[in-house]
Amino acid sequence: MYGARGGGISERDAVADRVTIIEGTLGKAFGVMGGYIAADQNIIDVIRSYAPGFIFTTSLSPVLVAGVLAAVRHLKSSSEERDAQQANAAMLKKLFFDAGLPVMMSNTHIVPLMVGDPVKAKKISDILLAEYGIYVQPINYPTVPRGTERLRFTPGPQHNEEMMRDLTSALLEIWDRMEIPVAQAA
Q1: Closest by CA position to 161, among listed 103, 98, 74, 71
Q2: Using CA atoms, how far apart are residues 161 and 182, in angstroms rounded to an integer?
Q3: Where do the H-state alpha helices sit in 100-183?
Q4: pLDDT in the model for residue 29
Q5: 122 annotated active-site
Q6: Is 80 left (phi over 0), alpha (psi -120 to 50) or beta?
Q7: What is the tens place of the pLDDT at every residue in 122-177?
Q8: Rounded CA gap, 96 and 166, in Å?
């Protein structure tokens, strides 16, 4: 999702030649499932031997590998999807900020919305799904420290402004219903 050819943050920041281990997921930007680790043979052997999550897994099926290869080939030559996702993330951050919602600013495609309470984060997530048909995952401890629970939005390249405005309106309604204060516009 980053870099001129989709090589990631290390490509974007021109430090790929300094990276020893590259790991990534195949289930998000590539739209398949699984993940990968790329490193020299000694490091891979250590990981195979000692990483408990790896010991009980198996290789990806040929159909998944074919899907990943097609996605990689496409994304190496097209920046349209990356550009659209970055633009949509910036738009959603601005919409949340302008609405007074507690968006956590960052320079990534992830748009975290601070809730600060695990029960409220789960409740907001449940309401969004049940009443608005919007799925968002609450992020709780131990992924984040206690007291910093949040909702994590990741707009895709196909989301449009109307969808993001509808999401913002839904969140404002839920914030009001749950009596969670919003920031006043400056």
Answers
A1: 98
A2: 21
A3: 118-132, 161-177
A4: 77
A5: no
A6: alpha
A7: 999 999 999 999 999 999 999 999 999 999 999 999 999 999 999 999 999 999 99
A8: 11
Task: Answer for the pair 80, 41: CB distance below 8 angstroms, yes or no.
Answer: no
CA–CA separation, 144 and 42 (whole Å): 32
Distance CA 122, CA 120 (A): 5
Token pair listed for 89: 């993330």
The torsion angles phi and psi of 131, rounded to 5 degrees, stand at -105, -25
Q: At what angle do helices 80-99 and 161-177 cross, to 10 degrees?
A: 30
Q: Could you give phi then psi for residue 156, rounded to 5 degrees?
A: -95, 175
For 49-99, write each residue's pLDDT tens digit: 887 776 666 778 899 999 999 999 998 899 999 999 999 999 999 999 999
The catalytic position among 28, 120, 122, 123 is 28
